[in-house]
Predict the 3D structure of the following.
Amino acid sequence: MDKHVDFYYEMTDDNEEEQYPQNTPVNGKYYEWQLSVGHQWLKIENDHVIETHYCHPGAKGISINTSHGVVFIDFDTLQANNPGIKVQRLSFLPRGQTEDIGWYFRDDQLWCEYGTQGSNTLSSSVSSRDVEQQFTTNPQGTFRFTVGHTPYLIDFSTMTQRNLITGLQRRLRRRPKLSSNTGAVSLTSALPTTSSSQTGVVGYRWEFMGVGEQWTEYQAHICSFDSAAIERQYQLNKQGTLNFKINRYSYTLDFSGMYQVNNKFGTRRSVRRTPIYGVQHNISSGPQAQWQFLDMDGSWKDYSKGICSTSSQEIEFQYKLNPSGTMTFSTRNFSYELSFSAMTQRNLRTGTTRTVRRLNQ
């Protein structure tokens, strides 16, 4: 269970402990995600993306592109689905400080934090801090509390909550809360220090909790609004609502509650707004560059989220970090490696190589 995510060593095959410093922040942040292939632990670049997803209770996991292919990280078990690959999240906390942990239960519609009101329940008599204190005292034990006059029992060993009258069980999740150290701070030291650019939020990604508890971005070819259009409406009225359509169904997005409702069936899904960090250029720097690949029909195609897992904006960000480096991305069926020095993309399964170009606009 995710109660084991914050640890400081990994037991090797010969039972030797590989120690890590416990009080050293990494690039201004107090966590680090790592993958192990064989006996070597390697940090994951731009792991603020993983952390942002992990801190949301509704996120089941995330797929990342690596030189070993696409790796899926299961947030509940903190394991990778790839044989021979391990994953861990290290926590580097100053002495005397602890991580702000949230405890959540899955009600009929949403993941709800203890101490708040669920979609079909009263607020509980305990908070995340109360549950965390009991868990820290006995990670394999149980904890009893009440909601109104109804008694409940939390079982930390199975990460479930049980109604002691009806016997109904619900799943639990324990996740760190998103802190001010998450995101842009972790990127500062890696970016070039020039007068024409700086790190910051370059936009926002709007997503809803889709099938299989996977976050799905609002995109124009699926929905009547994409992330950029939703963000514009949000800025106009952050407490308002937005009506939109997906196929034949109409929905209402509630900005204040951060959820969407199917107007016909009443089904409610969680919504989130995630900052996109990148390089912000001054007005004198001009527009962002456009990245394209040469398709098999001889035409140049733009990189966009409707085609693959990345966009021109994100490629440009990686390029600014290391103009001689590489990055990986995926489409529905394949994973690719984009080489900035060779200006090519390579299919990691078939080996097919295509030319890439960067257009200054």
